[in-house]
Amino acid sequence: MRLDPSSPADSESESSAVPMSSSHTLKLKYMSLAVLVLQTTSLVLTMRYSRTLKEDGPRYLASSAVVSAEVLKILACTLLVFREHQCNVQAMKQLLKEEIVNKPVETLKLAVPAGIYTLQNNLLYVALSNLDAATYQVTYQLKILTTALFSVSMLGKRLSFYQWLSLLILMAGVTLVQWPSESVGEPELKHLSAGSQFVGLMAVLMACFSSGFAGVYFEKILKETKQSVWVRNIQLGLFGFVFGVMGMMVCDGQRVRDFGIFQGYNSITCAVVILQALGGLVVAMVIKYADNILKGFATSVSIIMSTLTSYFLLKDFNPTSVFFLGAVLVIAATFLYGYEHKSASSTIKV
After folding, report:
1. How far apart are CA 181 and CA 281, in angstroms?
2. What are the phi and psi torsion angles at 320 (to 5°)?
3. pTM for the complete prediction?
4. What is the pLDDT of residue 300?
5. Is 33 exposed, middle or buried (CB count within 10 Å of its CB: 0-12, 13-18, 19+)?
6. pLDDT tens, 220-252?
7. Taking 70 as the threshold, does the pLDDT of residue 59 lie above it?
8. Which residues contact 101 (CB under 8 A, 6 or more apart)?
């Protein structure tokens, strides 16, 4: 952030306004982080429930849900831009033409994160089709590690000793969560469960790396420009829609031709689509008011909610002492990084 030199009189007149602005920004930051936790937990649980729910007829296509979420995100961002311009249609059209059509190079920069986000969103459906919500939530926190590494390499951020230590603790916690446990049952069921968990684990790991890179890349673009975050999300959504449709036709083209794009949709599916579209907007807001690593750590809070709901309501999760130890380590890493970040931000200005 740059501060222009001003006269003493100007400084006195502005000094009373700065705390209000700072306080307002702080409220927005923590409000957006709280909404992100609630949205993340709700999305994971409803997505898991929708992928394990037994119904007559074909199950909804994950690729179709991803495309539908992108369409909703584009519409929501367009409405927000419309509101920012005092509901002036002409002004909104002019802005979108200038920023999207007349700046093709800037617009094309969003193709990279859009393609990666599309892949990531499809991987999350694969993961939650093979892992319970609690295990998925804890394992997916590895995106904090990948985000930190990409932030250091791409944004030039510096992490302190305690922040690196928190990331190591995070890795240890996720490893314990994935530690194989003895289960009672038929050997064939055990083999099927192990195979399913391996597929889910690979999907989560790939999603973690894609999330880390795309998140930091998008953060870099947002902080290098004064353009509205909602306009950037429209650009991101347009590319995401194109890549999503291409992926849907390549992977599920025959099923789409046989049963249609919206096959298997119900109220639960619609809730998943809405929550996924909302997630993109919440993440954009968090990146604008906080940093990408803090966003990742904030979502760790939803582990507790996901674990309790997965055990008591979905009944697809049997916790072990090893899992609880791993979850505690992940949460401890969260607080360790958060404390270090808070103390550092009060003494160092960037």
Report:
1. 38
2. -120, 170
3. 0.79
4. 65
5. buried
6. 887 777 777 788 889 999 999 999 999 999 999
7. yes
8. none
Cα separation, 142 vs 174, in Å, equals 7
Taking a C-beta distance cutoff of 8 angstroms, is the pair 222, 286 a contact? no
Start-to-end CA span in the chain (Å): 7
What angle is formed at CA 272 by the lines to CA 297 and CA 39, rounded to 5 degrees?
Answer: 30
Q: Which among 144, 145, 142, 124 is positioned nearest to 178, based on CA atoms?
A: 142
- CA 114 to chain CA centroid, Å, is 13
Cα–Cα dist 275/272, whole Å? 5
Distance of CA 349 to the CA centre of its chain: 27
* CA separation for the pair 177, 42 (Å, rounded): 21
Interacting residues of 123 by C-beta distance below 8 A, sequence separation 6+: 203, 204, 206, 207, 210
* Structure-block tokens of residue 33: 């982080």
Name residues whose C-beta falls within 8 Å of residue 148's C-beta, 6 or more positions apart in sequence.
159, 163, 167, 212, 293
Rg over CA atoms, the chain: 22
The type of residue at 129 is: S
> Residue 18: which residues within 8 A CB-CB, separation 6 or more?
none
- In eight-state DSSP terms, residue 100 is I
Asked if 81 contacts 230 with a C-beta cutoff of 8 angstroms, the reply is: yes
- CB of 278 within 8 A of CB of 16? no
| Paired tokens of 117 | 């986000």
Torsions phi, psi for 285 (to 5 deg): -65, -40
Amino acid found at 228: S
**C-alpha–C-alpha distance, residues 178 and 200, integer Å:** 11
* 10 φ/ψ angles, rounded to the nearest 5 degrees: -65, -40
